[in-house]
Amino acid sequence: MAIWQYTFEVVPMECVSGMESSTFVDMDQYNSSDFWKDRNCKTIWFEPLTQTLSLVSSWSKNLMVYGDEESTCIKLIVEGSEVAEVIVRIDYREEYSEFISTLIDFCVLNSLALLDEEYHVVPLNTVAIKALIENSPQYNKLKQM
After folding, report:
1. Which of the 8 DSSP states describes residue 13?
2. CA angle 91, 96, 97 (to 5 degrees)
3. Residues 78-99 as b or e (16 or more Cβ within 10 Å = b)
4. Number of domains in the chain
5. SS3 readout for 90-104
6. CA–CA separation, 145 vs 131, rounded Å?
7. What does the alpha-carbon distance between residue 143 and residue 145 come to, in Å, rounded to a whole number?
8. What one-character-per-residue DSSP string does 33-100 give?
9. Which domain holds residue 110?
10. What does the alpha-carbon distance between residue 89 and residue 1 come to, in Å, rounded to a whole number?
11. Cα-based angle 58, 54, 132 (whole degrees, multiple of 5)
12. Strand pairing partners for 66?
């Protein structure tokens, strides 16, 4: 990840809705969570989210990258023909408001949640997401350069 990107993980809402707090207790809890297991989710399901980004070649047959890895992109990690992980990277050197709105709409319509870089559940609203990005260490470091 570049210092001009902020990374989110997209997960099914039911995987985080029963949590007592807005974050995972520890990395073991996070790592033992198989968010997409038994969802039978195919990559085509993400087409409304990826349609404005081009599919680019990847170093792995288990990784589908939409967009530019050095800019805004969506990474779908697949096992077999099913999605196993969804990563979204937002390049905040460019205007990203429209992309955030699309991401929020997609999450709301499909009962999905966003996890930030600290594995906190992120409120699905533009103001909260922009504040999260603009208060991140990498955003502040880039602004100081």
Report:
1. G
2. 155
3. beeeebbbbbbbbbbeeebeeb
4. 1
5. EECCCCCHHHHHHHH
6. 20
7. 6
8. --TTTTS---GGGGHHHHTTS-EE--SSTTEEEEE-TTSSEEEEEEETTEEEEEEEEEETTS--HHHH
9. 5-144
10. 8
11. 90
12. 55, 74
Cα→Cα distances 131→89, 92, 125, 134, Å: 16, 12, 10, 5
Q: Tell me the pTM.
A: 0.88
**Which one-letter amino acid corresponds to residue 135?**
N
**Taking the C-alpha atoms of 108, 95, 35 and 138 in order, what is their torsion angle to the nearest 10 degrees?**
-140
Question: Per DSSP, what are the bridge partners of residue 37?
Answer: none
pLDDT tens digits, the chain, 145 residues: what are they? 578 999 999 999 988 776 545 555 455 555 556 788 878 889 999 999 999 899 999 889 999 999 999 999 999 999 988 999 999 999 999 999 999 999 999 999 999 999 999 888 899 999 999 999 999 999 888 888 7
